[in-house]
Amino acid sequence: MDLTVDLRGKVGLVTGAGGQIGGACALALARCGADLALNDVRADALDAICAQVTALGRRALPLLGDSADHAAVQAMGRRALDEMGGVFVFMNVAGQSQPKHIVDMTEAEWDRTQAANVKSLFNWCQALLPSMLAGPGGRIVGLSSVSGKQGGDLNSVSRAAYAAAKGGVMGFVRGLAREAAPKVTVNAICPGLVINPRTQKLLEERPQMLEQYLAGRAGTGADIAKALLYFVAADWVTGEVTDVNGGYYID
Ligand SMILES: NC(=O)c1ccc[n+]([C@@H]2O[C@H](COP(=O)([O-])OP(=O)(O)OC[C@H]3O[C@@H](n4cnc5c(N)ncnc54)[C@H](O)[C@@H]3O)[C@@H](O)[C@H]2O)c1
Fold first, then answer.
1. Are 81 and 74 in contact (CB under 8 A)?
2. For residue 47, what are the domain limits?
3. pLDDT under 70 in the chain at which residues?
4. In-domain check, residue 84
């Protein structure tokens, strides 16, 4: 990826960093010169991305824990601020799909879907925003989904509960943009289908899904990382939700 923003001397924090999108976002920030605090619930995946960031010559602080857990996030946030200095870029990638229909879902499954996808963003903003506002400002980027706009796909893995959570991310960034202005911009990225081990399997079973993508292909983590760098650079853009979906859904 050949986009760059000068982030030397700055710190980024990416959640879900052990996955496809989070990993690509972490590496993009590191290539721009940022040191990173990286969060995931999977220790092996977290170690792997930290090693890749370190290999680029940047510092990587692993924060192993559940982004949906408010107390755990406050503790991880304090560690990041204490050990890395102020965080300038925060990108919340942690999240999970919910394939169950509403009529089959338990209350706990509904709550977990909301907590993983949208409460995680709230948790981290509570941990990091005060220091961003007290310091030189910053950039917050949430991760929504095209499902939050068009309601998900009955043949896929994202249905109403996931659509509600990702729709919540859009409302949250629009509201927080007002509360955090003018020092901190708050935006969200709204991806279509991005290749990861789960979606790769889905595409093998249903290759016709790609027919709806004007770009003729599914997305990659790097496609999402480009939008992240745009939001990092664009200091006159806040409260915005940008589609990155290969033309799958246009509104
Ligand atoms: N892949 C897609 O097609 C697609 C499309 C739209 C939106 N998204 C969103 O993008 C994000 C990541 O997608 P991906 O394709 O990289 O998936 P992925 O499965 O490759 O990565 C997700 C990572 O997040 C971690 N994670 C999940 N819940 C967590 C939590 N509560 N705390 C900390 N870490 C947690 C997982 O361990 C994993 O490493 C999710 O929020 C997902 O909803 C994905």
1. no
2. 11-189+220-240
3. 1-2, 154-156
4. yes
Which of 162, 230, 248, 249 is the catalytic position?
162
- Residue-averaged pLDDT of the chain: 96
Tell me, what CATH number does 27's domain have? Answer: 3.40.50.720
Peptide bond into 99 cis (omega under 30): no
Give distance in angstroms: CA of 70 to centre of ligand 1. Answer: 18
Determine if ligand 1 sits within 6 Å of the CB of residue 193.
yes
Token output for 13: 């924090």
Determine the pLDDT at residue 2: 63
What's the confidence (pLDDT) of residue 104? 94
Q: Which residue type sits at 86? A: G
With a threshold of 0.90, does the pTM exceed it? yes
pLDDT of residue 189: 98
Structural domains counted in the chain: 1
134 Cα: distance to centroid of ligand 1 (angstroms): 30
DSSP 138-205: EEEEEE--THHHH---TTSSB-HHHHHHHHHHHHHHHHHHHHHTTTEEEEEEEE--B--HHHHHHHHH
* pLDDT tens track for 102-157: 999 999 999 999 999 999 999 999 999 999 999 999 999 999 999 999 998 766 67
**CA-CA-CA-CA torsion for 90, 145, 204, 48, nearest 10 degrees?**
10
Would you say residue 73 lies in a domain?
yes
Which of 50, 69, 96 to mutate for ligand 1's pocket (most ligand atoms within 8 Å of CB)? Answer: 96
Q: Which has the closest alpha carbon to 134: 166, 167, 99, 86? A: 86
Does 213 participate in catalysis according to the annotation?
no
